[in-house]
Design goal:
80% helix, 137 residues, 3 helices, mainly alpha, flat, single chain, 0% strand
Length: 137
């Protein structure tokens, strides 16, 4: 038991000494980096991009890509056409939904009116039965 405690205390003592050594080494400062490397000379800034140069740049990039650029253009056109067709279909479906919703609202209003009439008839029948029961009793 005593040897186990001595072993653990030696381990803890060693860890404490090791951490002091580690942090003392880390605390030393390093020389500034600008003493070793010369400062970069900044190049003049390019002129601000305009819409025409941006379009020219895109066209140049696509032409430089060759076959891959052609595939990109074809995929763009296919996606645009597909999305256009999807938007048209979605608008048609939405218009159908609006029509069906209007029909359902009209039908629900007529059902609601019928239910109110049935409710009134049931109440009238209950009152009539209660009057007849009170006369008999």
């Amino acid at each position: 038991m005593k040897t186990v405690i001595e072993g653990i205390s030696n381990l803890v003592f060693g860890l404490i000494i090791g951490s002091f050594f580690f942090f003392s080494v880390q605390a030393q400062g390093e020389p500034p980096i600008h003493d070793y490397y010369p400062q970069r000379i900044q190049s003049p800034s390019p002129p601000p991009p305009s819409a025409q140069t941006a379009v020219d740049d895109v066209i140049t990039i696509l032409l430089d890509q060759g076959f891959a650029g052609a595939i990109i253009v074809i995929l763009f056109l296919w996606t645009y056409r597909t999305d256009k067709n999807n938007r048209i279909t979605q608008k048609e479906n939405f218009d159908k939904f609006v029509e069906i919703s209007a029909e359902c609202s009209a039908n629900m209003a007529s059902v609601s009116t019928r239910l109110e009439n049935i409710e009134r008839e049931i109440e009238a029948t209950k009152q009539l039965e209660m009057l007849q029961a009170s006369r008999k009793g």
